[in-house]
Amino acid sequence: MRIFEFRSRALLLRPPDEVFPFFADARNLEYLTPAWLRFAMLTPSPVEMRPGTLIDYRVRLRGVPLRWRSEITAWEPPYRFVDEQRRGPYRLWIHEHRFEETDYGGTLADDVVRYAVPGGWLADRLLVRRDLERIFDHRRRVLRDLFGSAPRGTGSPTPKG
CATH number for the 4-147 domain, one of 3.30.200.20, 3.30.530.20, 3.40.50.300, 3.30.1300.10? Predict the structure, then answer.
C-alpha cells in the first residue's frame, strides 16, 4: 500500500489558544468543509474531544454518499490533535492538525494528512490530490476569514522557539 502525504498551512493573526477552541468544537467541521461535499454531522452534539472519541458524519464525494467515522487518537490542546479514519473511502487516513505560535503572536495552522487510496498513484494523481487541494483551499479561506491572515512583513512565519 502506497502512502501519500498532503500538507496545507495557514498563517493566522490570532494565537493558538484562540484558534484551537474552534477546532475543539466538532460542529465547526461543517464550516471548514466545502458545500459541494454536503457534509452532515451524525454524532450528536456536544462531542467531547479527547483520545478515543469517535465522530460519525456523512459526505458526498463525487456524487457518491459516504459514511465516515473518525477517531481522535491524539489530543494536546492548544497545539495539536490527530484524527484517523476508522470507516470511510480511504485505505488509510491520518490527519494531524498542528497549531504553532509564531514570533508575532499568531498561529501557523499546519495540516498534515497521510493517506492511501484504492487505485494507488493513478487515483491520487487524477482525483484525490485535486479534491484535497480544493478542500484545503476552502479550509484556509475560512480560517483566514475567522482569524485573520498575517500581513507581509510581520515577522517570520516560522514557529517560535
Answer: 3.30.530.20
